[in-house]
């Protein structure tokens, strides 16, 4: 049996479960670790893998990011996105402006949540 680490998103040590989806006669079996919502988890998952070992290994290697790490990652994403936009067309493109604004809102929300936790 595999040992599952706590959920890297909600911290639950009791909710992570290994689930299997079996194909016909053992073909195309798939495995996923899910932080089971019904057991008080957040519903996050590892994604589907062809072996139970791969699913558990993926789950156990993820790390919980601090709010500062999340903000830095979002700011890097925003800067990378903005850098790829042609400057002459940047302010004409409402979609690009919307994406940048969406990332800014995510950064604000992470800061808000982090302040509530502290």
Describe this structure in words.
- The protein is mainly alpha-helical and 118 residues long.
- Helix content is 47%, strand content 10%.
- The chain has helices at 52-61, 67-84, 87-90, 94-117, and strands at residues 16-21, 30-35.
- A two-stranded antiparallel ribbon has the order 1-2.
- Strand 1 (16-21) and strand 2 form a beta hairpin.
- Helix 2 (67-84) packs antiparallel against helix 4 (94-117).
- The two termini are 37 Å apart.
- The model has no long low-confidence stretch (mean pLDDT 81).
Label the structural class: mainly alpha
Number of helices: 4
Helix content: 40-55%
Strand content: 5-15%
Taking pLDDT < 50 over at least 5 consecutive residues as the criterion, the unreliable ranges are none
Query: How many domain regions?
Result: 2
Total strands: 2
Spatial arrangement of strands, main beta sheet = 1-2
What is the N-to-C succession of helices and strands? Answer: EEHHHH
Instruction: State the major sheet.
Output: 2 strands, antiparallel
Brief sketch in words of this structure:
This protein has a two-stranded antiparallel ribbon. It has four helices and two strands; from the N terminus they run ββαααα.
């Amino acid at each position: 049996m595999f040992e599952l680490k706590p959920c890297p998103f909600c911290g639950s040590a009791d909710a992570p479960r290994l689930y299997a989806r079996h194909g016909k006669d053992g073909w195309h079996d798939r495995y996923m670790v899910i932080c089971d919502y019904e057991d008080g988890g957040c519903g996050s998952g590892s994604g589907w893998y062809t072996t139970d070992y791969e699913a558990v290994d993926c789950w156990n290697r993820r790390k919980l990011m601090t709010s500062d790490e999340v903000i830095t990652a979002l700011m890097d994403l925003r800067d990378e996105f903005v850098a790829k936009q042609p400057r002459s067309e940047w302010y004409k493109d409402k979609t690009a402006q919307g994406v940048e604004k969406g990332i800014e809102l995510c950064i604000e929300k992470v800061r808000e949540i982090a302040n509530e936790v502290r």
